[in-house]
Amino acid sequence: MTCPANHPKLNPTVRVTVTGAAGNIGYSLLFRLASGAVFGPDTPVQLQLLERDNPNSAKVLKGVCMELFDCAFPLLTGIKTTSDPKEAFDGAKAVFLVGAAPRGAGQTRADLITTNGPIFKTQGEAINAAADRNVKVLVVGNPCNTNAYICYHHAPDIARKNFTAMMRLDQNRSIAQLAAKTGKPVCSVQGAAVWGNHSKTMYADIERCTIAGVPAFDLVDQDWYHDFFLPTVADRGTAIIQARGKSSAASAASAAIDHMHDWWLGSNGRIVTMAVPSDGSYGVPEGLVCGFPVICTGNGEYEIVKGIELSKEGKERLEKSVKQLEEEAEHVKALI
Ligand SMILES: NC(=O)c1ccc[n+]([C@@H]2O[C@H](COP(=O)([O-])OP(=O)(O)OC[C@H]3O[C@@H](n4cnc5c(N)ncnc54)[C@H](O)[C@@H]3O)[C@@H](O)[C@H]2O)c1
């Protein structure tokens, strides 16, 4: 990598906020952000890291910052740590909202929404007050779709479309399973998408997917799709907790990198999955943050892919997932 000091055409520094920076995902995310994996080799980054105001978080974050420093990343121009959301979002052009409690043993999804929802109200307000007006926000903390929904309601001065939630991990999991099953490279799998909510109700759609140019359903059969693929993708998070004793962190961070990279720089015509505020497409009520196939057009914009003819099964699966999003929206009505 060219040293920024000698770089002929360096872009302006991007201020990037990461919340929950001392957590598991943070530890995998920050180093790749600082290395240039998201904004490219011509764009320096300044990290603005938000953590809870408690001695343990501060202590861990201090250690993470020492390691970032020790990497001597040429593109990392500075690191600020704080427990004040407004300070963390000050001038931010890209925001990763990771900080939230993971689901505890015995906790229902509704309990998790009750615990984490208020965080995203406060952070939406702070983003509205302090971030760049064209900031791009990616919500990772669960339940990510509904947290993004809460967040944009509290940031009325920033375009709603700039608030997204992460379903790229579900798409990446789909691609990895298809590549492994067919023995083809992951990059030959195109057009796999995940619709709906980031939950077990998600619809992992391979109807229009091709693998090395061949329709996926010419290479895998319906039994494998229904009996292995769908449950494997939907339950992957649980399987990783069982195997590792901790929730997926490196793969979640990697998906967050993929999501923001493509949003910022474009997806080169490829279909990718983002959960975005619905514009009413496919009968999804306007405003719900729902997973859709999108194309990122390369200028920090994305478009929901229109005109897809979903099968009867696809429609039913999407409806079920959207119903869950509606129930979650109802559950957080008091926070809006
Ligand atoms: N969307 C996805 O695909 C996906 C995948 C994996 C994990 N997740 C979610 O990401 C979140 C983080 O996971 P993790 O493994 O890093 O958890 P973690 O518990 O290791 O880290 C979370 C961090 O957030 C901090 N935090 C909590 N509340 C905060 C607040 N109000 N402000 C700032 N920081 C705060 C905590 O102190 C902690 O350091 C969880 O909600 C998890 O369920 C989402």
Q: Strands, helices and their partners?
A:
Blueprint: E1 14-19, H1 24-35, E2 45-50, H2 55-70, E3 76-82, H3 85-89, E4 94-97, H4 109-130, E5 136-139, H5 144-153, E6 163-165, H6 168-182, E7 189-190, E8 193-195, E9 203-205, E10 210-211, E11 214-215, H7 216-219, H8 222-234, H9 236-244, H10 250-265, E12 272-277, E13 289-296, E14 302-304, H11 312-331
Parallel strand pairs: 1-2, 1-4, 2-3, 4-5, 5-6
Antiparallel strand pairs: 7-10, 8-9, 10-11, 12-13, 13-14
The protein binds nicotinamide-adenine-dinucleotide.
Residues 19-20, 22-26, 50-52, 57, 98-100, 102, 119, 140-142, 144, 166, 169, 198, 247-249, 252 line the site of nicotinamide-adenine-dinucleotide.
Word description of this protein:
This protein is an alpha/beta fold. The chain has two domains: 4-165, 3-Layer(aba) Sandwich (Rossmann fold), CATH 3.40.50.720; 168-335, Alpha-Beta Complex (L-2-Hydroxyisocaproate Dehydrogenase, Chain A, domain 2). The protein is 42% helix and 18% strand. It has eleven helices and 14 strands. The protein has helices at residues 24-35, 55-70, 85-89, 109-130, 144-153, 168-182, 216-219, 222-234, 236-244, 250-265, 312-331; strands spanning 14-19, 45-50, 76-82, 94-97, 136-139, 163-165, 189-190, 193-195, 203-205, 210-211, 214-215, 272-277, 289-296, 302-304. The strands form four sheets. A six-stranded parallel β-sheet has the order 3-2-1-4-5-6. The chain has a three-stranded antiparallel β-sheet with strand order 7-10-11. Strand 13 (289-296) and strand 14 form a beta hairpin. Helix 1 runs parallel beside helix 10, helix 4 runs parallel beside helix 5 (144-153) and helix 6 (168-182) crosses helix 8 (222-234). It is globular and about 50 Å long. The mean pLDDT is 96. Bound molecules: nicotinamide-adenine-dinucleotide (NAD). The site of nicotinamide-adenine-dinucleotide has 27 residues, from helix 1.
